[in-house]
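Reviewer comment 2.1 asked that we show a complete input and output for one of the modelled complexes. We chose the nicotinamide-adenine-dinucleotide case, as it is the one discussed in the main text.
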Amino acid sequence: MFDLKGKVALVTGAARGIGKEIALTLAFQGADVIVTDIAETVSDVAKEIEELGVKSLALKCDVSNQEEVLNVQKQVIEKFQKLDILVNNAGIYPQKPFLEMTAADWCTVMRVNQFGTFYFTKAFIQGMVDRKYGKIVNLSSISGPVGVFPNLVHYSTTKAAIAGFTKALALEMAPYHINVNAVAPGPIDVSAGQIPEAMTAQIVRAIPLGRMGKPDDVANLVVFLVSDEANFITGQTIVSDGGYTLP
Ligand SMILES: NC(=O)c1ccc[n+]([C@@H]2O[C@H](COP(=O)([O-])OP(=O)(O)OC[C@H]3O[C@@H](n4cnc5c(N)ncnc54)[C@H](O)[C@@H]3O)[C@@H](O)[C@H]2O)c1
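Response of the prediction step:
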């Protein structure tokens, strides 16, 4: 559908779930894809990508550790010489009522969801500025910028921040032809059918389109946003939630 041949992309948190699907979909459209994650199993995703006939590289990296992120940047530039597409996907959503939430809980979520996005963007954006080309997509959520879910005050705060970060960065990067956008998914089933049926039914009742989201609902949107077909879109946080936040 979109031609990403010759492009080099990197997806954080790509060992499973939405990140894995984004990485595979980018590869399917012809991009070479670097996959990073704290989980060793990210190397299995790199193998799947190579089976699609493009290049890949798996790197273990905690997005909340700036040294590890800079090491990824070094290895990517050594092997691929450039990065065209950055998808800041890695994120955590540990549920906890606010009354029980500690400063340590708060910091953990901020460090992964917010600092991780900042570290990866900082590491690669100068190269994009120099080449006057770049596509950045950040994973936000409907929880924060649009609606909220219970027991996720820290998470919702980071995801609203990601929407603000996306807008502010898009403005500064526009002169360099770098598009910065975010996607805000609704409930996406990343468990491959492991969510109990009763719980799925309850969520689905709140979704006008009548089903849970799937990782490829998000991946297809990301691929559009990083394609040259979306060159005139920047600073946006685009909701993909089956109408969940409409009523
Ligand atoms: N699943 C949903 O319903 C949903 C909805 C809205 C937004 N999102 C967002 O989409 C993104 C992906 O979510 P998911 O549901 O696929 O999650 P997931 O838990 O299935 O996968 C997350 C991946 O990130 C990795 N990861 C976690 N902490 C990391 C760290 N510090 N450094 C590097 N990698 C790390 C994990 O190992 C895992 O492979 C997140 O940013 C999440 O907030 C998910």
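The CA atoms of residues 56 and 231 lie 25 Å apart. We note this here for comparison with the apo prediction described in Section 3.2.
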